[in-house]
Amino acid sequence: xxxxxxxxxxxxxxxxxxxxxxxxxxxxxxxxxxxxxxxxxxxxxxxxxxxxxxxxxxxxxxxxxxxxxxxxxxxxxxxxxxxxxxxxxxxxxxxxxxxxxxxxxxxxxxxxxxxxxxxxxxxxxxxxxxxxxxxxxxxxxxxxxxxxxxxxxxxxxxxxxxxxxxxxxxxxxxxxxxxxxxxxxxxxxxxxxxxxxxxxxxxxxxxxxxxxxxxxxxxxxxxxxxxxxxxxxxxxxxxxxxxxxxxxxxxxxxxxxxxxxxxxxxxxxxxxxxxxxxxxxxxxxxxxxxxxxxxxxxxxxxxxxxxxxxxxxxxxxxxxxxxxxxxxxxxxxxxxxxxxxxxxxxxxxxxxxxxxxxxxxxxxxxxxxxxxxxxxxxxxxxxxxxxxxxxxxxxxxxxxxxxx
Amino acid sequence: xxxxxxxxxxxxxxxxxxxxxxxxxxxxxxxxxxxxxxxxxxxxxxxxxxxxxxxxxxxxxxxxxxxxxxxxxxxxxxxxxxxxxxxxxxxxxxxxxxxxxxxxxxxxxxxxxxxxxxxxxxxxxxxxxxxxxxxxxxxxxxxxxxxxxxxxxxxxxxxxxxxxxxxxxxxxxxxxxxxxxxxxxxxxxxxxxxxxxxxxxxxxxxxxxxxxxxxxxxxxxxxxxxxxxxxxxxxxxxxxxxxxxxxxxxxxxxxxxxxxxxxxxxxxxxxxxxxxxxxxxxxxxxxxxxxxxxxxxxxxxxxxxxxxxxxxxxxxxxxxxxxxxxxxxxxxxxxxxxxxxxxxxxxxxxxxxxxxxxxxxxxxxxxxxxxxxxxxxxxxxxxxxxxxxxxxxxxxxxxxxxxx
Lengths: 404, 404
Description:
The structure is a homodimer. The first copy, chain A, is of the alpha+beta class. Chain A has four domains: about 5-20 and about 170-320, Molybdenum Cofactor Biosythetic Enzyme, Chain A (3-Layer(aba) Sandwich), CATH 3.40.980; about 20-45 and about 135-170, Molybdopterin biosynthesis moea protein, domain 2; about 50-130, Molybdopterin biosynthesis moeA protein, domain 3; about 330-400, Beta Barrel (Beta-clip). In chain A, about 20% of the residues lie in helices and about 30% in strands. Chain A has seven helices and 28 strands. Chain A has helices at about 5-10, 155-160, 200-210, 225-235, 255-260, 300-320, 375; strands at about 20-25, 30-35, 35-40, 50, 55, 65-75, 90, 105, 110-115, 115-120, 130, 145, 165-170, 175-180, 185, 195, 215, 240-245, 265-270, 280-285, 295-300, 330-335, 340-345, 345-355, 360-365, 380-385, 390, 395-400. A six-stranded mixed sheet of chain A has the order 8-5-7-6-10-9, with no helix packed on it. In chain A, strands 17-14-18-21-20-19 form a six-stranded mixed sheet, sandwiched between helices. The longest helix of chain A is centred in the C-terminal third of the chain and has 19 residues, at about 300-320. Chains A and B meet through α2, β16, α3, α6 and α7 of A and α2, β17, α3, α6 and α7 of B.
């Protein structure tokens, strides 16, 4: 049986960034840019006033006569209708274009307007003052963004400013969730004898969205070869297919065989960890213009599913999206309480991070075992307890796998 | 003019958690729970096998005779049709219900099946072994989640398991973005003379979504009192109204007057910071079943808008959603490079976080000033340089406001 580390290497060795795609700007935030973006126009596209005041010719104010004739009023969005005349001042608003001939703007606070004239009290008016010359920020044709960076909100604004409504990026991975098992009913139904509710689809959808990917949950697939193959086949069109249930050793656990008949190449089955041992991983047949889906068969037990997701699926989503990483974001913390552990597999034990003066410390939670979802609902993640028999003392450093 | 801290107090003193609302489970992840959630059924709802194997009566295996008759086969989701007979074993799958009379399950690995009989090799089979008794995890009527906690993915799964498709939470804030200004055209248009593209709406939408709220951008509002009032009036139905432009001192800056006529109580205008001084804040008239919208008039300059959002709007979104916080997540880091600053206002200077051995260090970026969105597109946030004249040396500790 593979160790967690060997299984992670087996997954990460088969994952690379998704093929580049054009995406609407509204869906590109947080994605890695896949093209060089050029400015289509100078920015600003005209000499733009940075203040409210009066556009002037600096040379007109070199002598003692500080009075200018008041010309037109230029509002933002309405270009001047004529050049500035000799010894003339045009009233101008922040963001509005300077009239031809003007080479400075005087702030309104340093002027006085008397009928059709303007008294400029400001001393030493210099050419270039208080406006942004056309092309000062960006020249048309210049690269404003280079491929490889993650698009933050400022980059989204910059793309809009150069006229982009779509942009080529490494897209968000598309994940399809398939719950399997004849014992499942959807959450809005009252389970009949022998049935339980499908809680995994809602849970995995929340995990996928939190992992920066798009999620679609398909209806429950029954334990029958035909319908199961139909649903799993649909899932293989996605970048990642998450299947819950049907991967333990029972005679009716049809998932691995059905996947193999659909052309999914198995990579491993079972990992040495607790909870979550019966994890199945394989790679689907190549799709048009994209490599085959990553297929994870997660145990039906919800806590096992969470741990498997955090250790194997979330890092794979990061790699598909070309985000940094290469493994789960494990941190190390002091234990707040003693905690003992006996077992032949490393155990992921629900724990809370508690602020304790010199940084967050780890509080292991009382836990009824791998089917106890209620305790995990109050946890921040999992303390990683190595295999063997060991009592951890308060203050001992333990690794931590965050849930959020 | 208010300091940043006084302005933050003025905002945060007027914000509380939004009224509780019922939300579909698929939209509740990350929200704070607003109700006590009770289990509707025992969990598990029946005695549930934890392994693949044979359901038996432990007492039948106390003697030397290890052979049992093979009874029915019980698959998950298909309840047993009859009680277990004397010296009988029922084949059972993981997750399937035990037949009445059975009190233990023996793993398949410890048995041998020969025609109609089963040889049980396991020693010391104990009652209760390898199954989860009905109600062992959760009793019907018991509280499984209490109000006040944030719903993680495990909590979403738990809610689905007790039959909830909706849940009462502190909802995600709804934010409406209104870009204003006659000089604006939408990004898909080529700006005419004196026009520039509306880059703020796309940028603010990305910031709002990243801040855990829902965003809707309305069309550009012109600098005309009637249409402006109509659009701003629509925005006041949201929890937060973000307006860009129209808040400096120009004669055509109609936003503050229009808001006041719509019943928005002004709280402050202008804050001592750079960039972002002309920030306007007020509170709209009370809505049915909700307090009035928080109204922020952000400067039209995109970098000023980002800084204003991070300092004032994002903490307000956290408070509306009852998430912890109470201010922006400012951290302190060593400077990597010298950086000098002169100014009568604290300045938010674009900077990158760079891994430097003992934690991330701060690299201030060359910056052409408050209209230079391109530099911020490559930044992780802003170094906070206090007012006055100061040269910061490498290694000096400087506060940092993250963008992400």
